[in-house]
């Protein structure tokens, strides 16, 4: 496993790596393996507070880390207050909390302990949701989120092999009782895998299927990336697509392109429902405005322009210095300043907005600096007053390659 972990980060392996450790067998084996591979580590555990004893489990991870000479931090999240899909909320919370922790530690890379079994379970769950090629092409081995590069170096290793490695070292792990609770879809997928094993459908065989699908998916992604380079621009955070070009794309590439644009502009982790995207694509022949997924889509004679919908951010206000929607604003700080949408009233106070070349609809949803009801700056609308606005979600082209 040592050689595998060294190769997982490639030739540009970072000098210091964060490792997320729950105390379960997978993440414990990852911690031990990375330590044996010679990485400079810092470990972190998120205590979700979802069951009695979780704090003691986090403390147990701390004791293991102390024995390995690895610094360890515990982050807390009030999981009992979560609404909706608990597992998804927990996943989001982990990324957010660990990402902020990594930034604070000066760590740019974090390793996660997902295994070949997780890959197979995810595949079955996505089959149940009628996923397309993107969804069935597997978990990302490397991705960027919360300003951190995340790695899954154990996707080709089975859960059983990791536990065997721990036993060989005389080490134990913590068994999470929720891993046996059929309330959760992942547990049901795990149980289904056991039933399917006599047919030869195992984590290993599903892993091979996923790799085949990932190869096909990569070809489509590359084709779409070339199209975006030639026919798409992103002025001031909008996505402008040459209409002639998009109409010539195959329907699957049209769908991927629109989903990527809607996610990038709205900041959502998920695209809109497939039926709504299909309806939008069916109406490409007709010019006019549409709204979908917190975005405004203007279908013009020569181009499609997707921008943030003003209504989606009208009530969003944050203190200056914090991220607003997907924007970071920097400038002369002062007490009481806030970031909010420019809106109709703010745009009326920007006499040179037409000189920016940006449409009115785009500027209405753009970030502005306010002191109460007084407009201080609107960088995208030509009223800078020392303030600059920068997209904080990365380049649009980067968002095309994700699952």
TrEMBL record:
<comment type="similarity">
    <text>Belongs to the tRNA(Ile)-lysidine synthase family.</text>
</comment>
<dbReference type="GO" id="GO:0005737">
    <property type="term" value="C:cytoplasm"/>
</dbReference>
<dbReference type="GO" id="GO:0006400">
    <property type="term" value="P:tRNA modification"/>
</dbReference>
<comment type="function">
    <text>Ligates lysine onto the cytidine present at position 34 of the AUA codon-specific tRNA(Ile) that contains the anticodon CAU, in an ATP-dependent manner. Cytidine is converted to lysidine, thus changing the amino acid specificity of the tRNA from methionine to isoleucine.</text>
</comment>
<keyword id="KW-0067">ATP-binding</keyword>
<dbReference type="InterPro" id="IPR014729">
    <property type="entry name" value="Rossmann-like_a/b/a_fold"/>
</dbReference>
<dbReference type="GO" id="GO:0032267">
    <property type="term" value="F:tRNA(Ile)-lysidine synthase activity"/>
</dbReference>
<keyword id="KW-0547">Nucleotide-binding</keyword>
<keyword id="KW-0819">tRNA processing</keyword>
<dbReference type="InterPro" id="IPR012795">
    <property type="entry name" value="tRNA_Ile_lys_synt_N"/>
</dbReference>
<keyword id="KW-0963">Cytoplasm</keyword>
<dbReference type="InterPro" id="IPR012094">
    <property type="entry name" value="tRNA_Ile_lys_synt"/>
</dbReference>
<dbReference type="InterPro" id="IPR011063">
    <property type="entry name" value="TilS/TtcA_N"/>
</dbReference>
<dbReference type="GO" id="GO:0005524">
    <property type="term" value="F:ATP binding"/>
</dbReference>
<protein>
    <recommendedName>
        <fullName>tRNA(Ile)-lysidine synthase</fullName>
        <ecNumber>6.3.4.19</ecNumber>
    </recommendedName>
</protein>
<keyword id="KW-0436">Ligase</keyword>
<dbReference type="Pfam" id="PF01171">
    <property type="entry name" value="ATP_bind_3"/>
</dbReference>
<feature type="domain" description="tRNA(Ile)-lysidine/2-thiocytidine synthase N-terminal">
    <location>
        <begin position="17"/>
        <end position="191"/>
    </location>
</feature>
<feature type="binding site">
    <location>
        <begin position="22"/>
        <end position="27"/>
    </location>
    <ligand>
        <name>ATP</name>
    </ligand>
</feature>
């Amino acid at each position: 496993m040592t050689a595998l972990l060294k190769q997982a980060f490639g030739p540009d392996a970072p000098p210091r790596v964060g490792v997320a450790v729950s105390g379960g067998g997978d993440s414990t084996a990852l911690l031990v393996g990375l330590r044996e591979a010679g990485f400079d580590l810092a470990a972190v555990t998120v205590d979700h507070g979802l069951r009695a004893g979780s704090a003691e489990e986090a403390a147990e991870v701390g004791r293991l880390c102390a024995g390995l000479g690895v610094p360890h931090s515990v982050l807390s999240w009030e999981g009992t207050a979560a609404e909706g899909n608990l597992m998804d909320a927990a996943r989001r919370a982990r990324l957010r909390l660990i990402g902020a922790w990594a930034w604070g530690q000066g760590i740019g890379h974090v390793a996660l302990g997902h295994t070949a079994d997780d890959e197979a379970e995810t595949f079955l769950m996505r089959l149940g949701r009628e996923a397309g090629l993107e969804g069935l092409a597997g978990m990302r081995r490397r991705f960027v989120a919360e300003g951190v590069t995340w790695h899954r170096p154990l996707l080709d290793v089975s859960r059983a092999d990791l536990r065997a490695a721990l036993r060989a070292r005389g080490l134990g792990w913590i068994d999470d009782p929720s891993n046996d609770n059929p309330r959760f879809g992942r547990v049901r997928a795990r149980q289904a895998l056991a039933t399917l094993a006599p047919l030869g459908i195992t984590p290993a065989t599903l892993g091979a299927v996923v790799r085949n699908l990932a190869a096909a998916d990569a070809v489509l992604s590359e084709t779409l990336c070339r199209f975006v380079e030639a026919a798409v621009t992103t002025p001031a955070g909008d996505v402008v697509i040459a209409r002639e070009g998009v109409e010539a794309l195959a329907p699957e590439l049209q769908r991927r392109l629109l989903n990527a644009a809607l996610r990038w502009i709205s900041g959502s982790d998920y695209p809109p429902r497939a039926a709504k995207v299909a309806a939008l694509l069916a109406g490409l022949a007709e010019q006019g405005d549409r709204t979908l997924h917190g975005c405004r889509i203007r279908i013009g004679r020569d181009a499609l322009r997707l921008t943030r919908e003003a209504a989606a951010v009208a009530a969003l206000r944050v203190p200056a210095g914090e991220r607003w929607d997907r924007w970071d604003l920097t400038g002369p700080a002062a007490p009481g300043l806030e970031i909010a949408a420019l809106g109709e009233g703010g745009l009326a106070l920007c006499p040179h907005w037409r000189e920016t070349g940006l449409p009115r609809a785009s500027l209405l949803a753009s970030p502005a600096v306010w002191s109460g009801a007084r407009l201080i700056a609107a960088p995208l609308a030509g009223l800078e007053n020392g303030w600059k606005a920068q997209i904080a979600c990365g380049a649009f082209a980067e968002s095309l390659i994700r699952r």
